């Protein structure tokens, strides 16, 4: 007997009460986009669909944030007018960008800085960061983990303002002295000279706050309740000179640190753009600030290694230098106590801290420059040769 198969119309009529819209279930859920042999069936992978939805929502939020950023940036630029590069308004804006970049980031990593300073002064105090934070929080609460945040914020805001704004000014000043061709040929020397000059001035503003910060973080309980209380107590006991007794080692720490920070950042960013297709101007704001963060993080690791012995000595001098003791005598006494190995106490913590700090600082600073309508730092093209 021949076998009679039901037609598709008969099947559809039979099962239409059970299937939405009278279509087979697989057909009802089939995607509308053309399918190829390499295209997966998304309806078989619900987790994939959830991930795609989350990605789409993230992209929507990102697009909305970019639109709000551009709207605010456009409004600010309309109010300030077109700011010419290397004008007084340009340097003022860069100064404010540096204030934001350094003040906010250094304050955010106060818990790391607290443990680093205490371990530099007494390497046996804590075995590790988590043990330290646990002991501090149990003894002093959450507030104790952020001991020294106030002088950190004020000090590094001042330092960041003079460092970044000063660097832009000195870099242009030395480039003009050298001339376009020599400025490009000897650009690394320009970066080093500009950053060293800016940091020399910035440390004069940082030093009083650094003295208060270190004393607050290395005395248990802290010797002062806050920045003003700390400044008052130091000057009452030792005069204004007490706030600057760590200036020489601070220069010894910060000037090499900043020279490495700016010169290596400029070089790394230029190398990144050199290896990417196209020109720097071909990339959007997010990509350029991402390059700034990557270049800053690499530069921060190098900075931490170069400046760490001086950083240890700054902490020791501010905590243990006796009243009236000569700078050289104090340095010799401290080195005799801790030895060469002691100069490297807390280095792993500082690498993490400074790498993150430097990456975030450059990202914030360059994002602010974009906000104001300026080009980001680093990756500049060589000067065009004049035609004969």
From TrEMBL:
Where does each Solcar repeat begin and end?
89-173, 186-271, 287-371
> Record keywords: Repeat included?
yes
Gene3D superfamilies registered for this protein in UniProt? Mitochondrial carrier domain (1.50.40.10)
Give membrane topology per the record: Multi-pass membrane protein
Query: Which superkingdom, per the lineage?
Result: Eukaryota
What InterPro entries does the record tag this protein with? MCP_dom_sf, MCP_transmembrane, SLC25A3/Pic2/Mir1-like
Alphabetized, the UniProt keywords read: Membrane, Mitochondrion, Mitochondrion inner membrane, Repeat, Transmembrane, Transmembrane helix, Transport
Pfam families registered for this protein in UniProt:
Mito_carr
One GO term in the molecular function aspect is: phosphate transmembrane transporter activity
Q: Which family does it belong to?
A: Belongs to the mitochondrial carrier (TC 2.A.29) family.
- Which purpose does this protein serve, as stated in its record? Transport of phosphate groups from the cytosol to the mitochondrial matrix.
Name of the protein in question? Mitochondrial phosphate carrier protein
């Amino acid at each position: 007997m021949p076998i009679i198969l039901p037609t598709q119309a008969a099947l559809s009529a039979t099962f239409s009460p059970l299937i939405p819209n009278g279509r087979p279930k697989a057909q009802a859920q089939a995607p509308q986009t053309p399918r190829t042999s390499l295209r997966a069936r998304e309806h078989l992978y619900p987790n994939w669909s959830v991930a795609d939805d989350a990605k789409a929502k993230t992209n929507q939020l990102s697009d909305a944030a970019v639109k709000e950023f551009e709207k605010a940036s456009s409004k600010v630029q309309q109010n300030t007018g077109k700011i010419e590069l290397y004008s007084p308004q340009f340097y003022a804006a860069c100064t404010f960008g540096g204030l934001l970049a350094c003040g906010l980031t250094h304050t955010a990593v106060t818990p790391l800085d607290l443990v680093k300073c205490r371990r530099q002064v007494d390497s046996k105090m804590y075995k590790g960061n988590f043990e330290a934070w646990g002991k501090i929080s149990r003894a002093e609460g959450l507030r104790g983990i952020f001991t020294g945040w106030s002088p950190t914020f004020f000090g590094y805001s001042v330092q960041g303002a003079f460092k970044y704004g000063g660097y832009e000014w000195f870099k242009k000043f030395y480039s003009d002295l050298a001339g376009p061709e020599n400025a490009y040929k000897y650009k690394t020397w320009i970066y080093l000279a500009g950053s060293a000059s800016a940091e020399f001035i910035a440390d004069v503003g940082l030093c009083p706050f650094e003295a208060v910060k270190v004393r607050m973080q290395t005395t248990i309980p802290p010797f002062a309740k806050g920045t003003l209380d700390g400044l008052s107590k130091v000057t009452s006991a030792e005069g204004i000179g007490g706030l600057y007794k760590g200036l020489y080692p601070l220069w010894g720490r910060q000037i090499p640190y900043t020279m490495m920070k700016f010169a290596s950042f400029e070089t790394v960013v230029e190398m990144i753009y050199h290896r990417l297709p196209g020109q720097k101007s071909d990339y959007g704001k997010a990509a350029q600030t991402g390059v700034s963060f990557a270049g800053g993080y690499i530069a921060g690791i190098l900075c931490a290694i170069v400046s760490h012995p001086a950083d240890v000595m700054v902490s020791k001098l501010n905590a243990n230098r006796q009243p009236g003791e000569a700078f050289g005598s104090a340095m010799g006494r401290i080195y005799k106590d801790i030895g060469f190995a002691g100069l490297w106490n807390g280095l792993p913590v500082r690498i993490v801290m400074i790498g993150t700090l430097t990456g975030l600082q450059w990202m914030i600073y360059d994002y602010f420059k974009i906000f104001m309508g300026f080009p980001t730092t680093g990756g500049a093209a060589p000067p065009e040769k004049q035609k004969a």
